[in-house]
Write a structure and sequence with these properties.
The protein has 11 helices and 8 strands. It is α/β, with parallel strands linked by helices. It binds erythose-4-phosphate (E4P).
């Protein structure tokens, strides 16, 4: 029987809406938070630092990831040190390449060597996982975010790739793998099954945790009732056409 209390994978909440973050901060199942510039834009954030400090006042003691937003590595480095200074629980998200496709490994190595807890993001291949893992300092905690959901969006099963990523990361015991961009609740159990350290999911998916193990006959009946109620509420009717 599936049981949320038996999960070893840590659940993070991915989002940039302060009310949603507040709601998940009160949920004891949630161990950390991730954000990204796209989610921040959707949430209407226009003052990056103000937003980040608001999040950190809601979440003072669990990991929170904020991403750099420059495209050249020296400016990313400056932003990374600034973002890291906002709290001891901050992970600085560094994209695996810049928009020219140049590898961010050297920057990741410098930051990790300096004690910055990076979250290397937008990773989709095992080659990227291996090359980033090589650059991580053994003594500094780090996160490696593989976008399993985006991999699945291309028709590929992400599970074998994620399992291999777990194996590659063993050479840096302070590094953790995030299953990023999950598409459905089942992904939490898939991540757990391969020993992935963390999965970060939007509140929409996390709210489905209440469904884990639900009786399927009861769920089927609720679904039939939902269709019936909505058909009634919409006032649907079909008259029989008179025979020609
Ligand atoms: C993780 O840190 C990312 O913010 C997130 O999982 C991206 O998800 P998406 O692929 O649905 O945009």
């Amino acid at each position: 029987m599936m049981d949320v209390s038996r999960l070893t994978v840590k659940l993070f909440a991915d989002g940039a809406d302060l009310d949603g973050i507040r709601e998940m901060a009160a949920n004891p199942l949630i161990s950390g938070f991730t954000t990204n510039p796209t989610l921040m834009r959707k949430a209407g954030v226009n003052d990056y630092r103000r937003f980040a400090l608001d999040v950190l006042s809601i979440v003072p003691d669990k990991p929170v990831s904020f991403e750099v937003f420059a495209d050249d590595f020296s400016e990313m480095e400056r932003q990374a040190f600034e973002i890291a200074s906002w709290g001891r629980n901050v992970n600085v998200k560094i994209p695996v390449t810049n928009t020219r496709g140049e590898f961010a490994g050297p920057l990741v190595g410098r930051l990790s060597d300096a004690g910055v807890q990076v979250n290397v993001t937008a990773i989709m291949t095992l080659d990227q996982v291996a090359r980033i893992t090589d650059r991580l300092a053994s003594a500094t905690p780090a996160i490696v975010s593989v976008f399993a959901g985006r991999i699945a969006d291309t028709g590929r099963d992400p599970v074998p790739l994620m399992a291999e990523a777990v194996r590659i990361l063993r050479s840096k015991p302070r590094a953790e793998l995030i299953w990023a961009s999950p598409r459905e609740l089942l992904n939490i159990f898939q991540a757990d099954g391969i020993g992935c350290h963390i999965i970060t999911a939007t509140n929409d998916i996390l709210k489905k945790l209440a469904l884990v193990g639900k009786d399927l006959d009861a769920y089927s009946l609720e679904t039939v009732e939902m269709f019936y109620k909505d058909a009634n509420a919409a006032g649907f009717g079909i008259t029989t056409r008179a025979a020609a």
